[in-house]
TrEMBL record:
Gene3D superfamilies: YVTN repeat-like/Quinoprotein amine dehydrogenase. PROSITE patterns: WD_REPEATS_2. WD repeats lie at residues 236-277. This is WD repeat-containing protein 65. It comes from the Eukaryota. Keywords: Coiled coil, WD repeat. Pfam families: WD40 (PF00400). Signal peptide: none annotated. Residues 292-319, 350-399 form a coiled coil. SMART domains: WD40.
Length: 409
């Protein structure tokens, strides 16, 4: 999960944030001043520094910061986990104590400074540790051989921050004299005055192509690398007071700055040439044993309820299937009876139909015969009547002719 941690020296709180969602994840309050914090690369552990001790904590989303081990340290103002998280370093006055994150054994005690340490940086391979102090001292420790291999002092200068390239050859420092120095080996090969007052912090991108420097009054300066005789840097303003801390995300895509004006700013790095994009954040978080036990018990209880509900569902399902089968049997039997009744009615109707048809055919045949007989009889009577009338007419004509003859006579 994309997280970062902050501490408040006034309200004595430690807060865990999600810098992608800009969301506060948890808050832990303490009864004493919190001087510094450091978050493990996995986000599961955190170091919290106080005036006389440093605590190693488990980050729990349910129980907050759960202390696991306490280490003695005087006025610790610098804590830092190694890149892989298997070790962590804490400042103890003018020395640095390096502990194992697994066994909590003290692996190294590094000495070499004459004043309070202002910054410490792990090398990319976790086998070298670089530190600086307020009197201009710069030390490099080889943890593989347990040797103090480099010791440089810039008299009269207070080094406020340093950054180391991935190849471990270049070291960049910022100081209160507004200068950025590039150190190669034991020589200062470039010393550039940025004219921005006291410089308070410096960060180097993993690509080794860009430096970010915190200047006076909260300004952030971006310096392209390698440093040239004339530096064309860009200025970014959001804070109005000194930037106390600034860190880059693991993929160099986000910059988090904290200022003395009680503000936190999350910057999005737009130029994709300067950071790695193939980063997958872990979603796992740690929880307390009691919380986990309660969750397991609750899960078992829910599983038991689920099993009971499943069995009840199966019983209800079987009962429903049985009822449906009985209902379907009743419907099927009723359907068979209705079909048989309809078939009988159909046969009766067909029988009645054929009987009526035969009766009507007989009636029609009888009517045809009667009609034929009546027609023949009527025809014969008509012919007889017509013959009679013809004879009668002829007789009338004959009588008329005789009457005319008699009249003429």
């Amino acid at each position: 999960m994309p997280m970062f941690m902050t501490c408040g020296r006034v309200d004595r709180t430690v807060k865990l944030w999600d810098y992608q969602q800009c969301e506060l994840l948890l808050t832990e309050r303490y009864a004493e001043d919190v001087l510094d914090v450091s978050l493990h690369p996995s986000g599961l552990y955190a170091l919290v520094a106080f005036a006389r001790s440093v605590t190693f904590n488990v980050v729990s989303r349910t129980d907050g910061l759960v202390p696991r081990r306490t280490f003695g340290a005087e006025d610790c103002r610098g804590t830092r986990f190694s890149g892989s998280g298997h070790m962590f370093a804490v400042t103890d006055g003018t020395s640095v104590d390096v502990y194992c994150s697994v066994t909590f054994a003290k692996c190294f005690k590094l000495n070499g400074h004459q004043s309070a340490i202002t910054d410490l940086v792990w090398a990319a391979n976790d086998w070298k540790l670089y530190t600086c102090d307020g009197d201009g001292g710069l030390c490099r420790f080889n943890l593989y051989t347990d040797q103090h291999i480099t010791d440089m002092v810039f008299r009269g200068q207070s080094i406020c921050g340093l950054a180391v390239s991935d190849n471990l050859k270049e070291i960049y420092t910022v100081a209160q004299d507004s200068s950025v120095r590039e150190i190669y080996g034991r020589m200062v090969i470039r010393n550039k005055d940025l004219n921005h007052g006291s410089l308070n912090g410096i960060i180097l991108f993993k690509s080794n192509k860009m430096l970010l420097v915190a200047g006076q009054y909260g300004v952030i300066l971006s310096l392209p690398l390698p440093l040239k005789s004339k530096i064309n840097y860009k200025e970014f303003y959001i804070h109005n007071k000194t930037i106390l801390k600034m860190r880059l995300s693991t993929d160099d895509a986000s910059l988090i700055t904290c200022s003395a004006d009680d503000s936190i700013c999350i910057w999005r790095v737009k130029n994709s040439n300067f950071f790695h994009t193939n980063t997958t954040f872990m979603e796992n978080t740690l929880v307390s044993f009691n919380f986990l036990k309660n969750k397991i018990d609750r899960t078992k209880e829910l599983e038991l309820k689920l099993e009971k509900l499943t069995k009840k569902k199966e019983r209800d399902k079987l009962k429903l299937i049985k009822n449906q089968e009985m209902w379907l049997k009743v419907v099927h039997d009723q359907y068979a009876l209705d079909m048989k009744r309809i078939e009988n009615e159909k046969k009766e109707i067909l029988a009645m139909f054929h009987a009526d048809k035969a009766r009507l055919e007989n009636e029609i045949s009888t009517l045809k015969e009667n009609h034929e007989r009546d027609w023949i009889t009527s025809k014969e009577n008509y012919e007889k009547q017509l013959s009679y009338e013809d004879d009668k007419y002829e007789q009338l004509i004959k009588d008329a002719s005789n009457s005319d003859a008699d009249f003429k006579k």
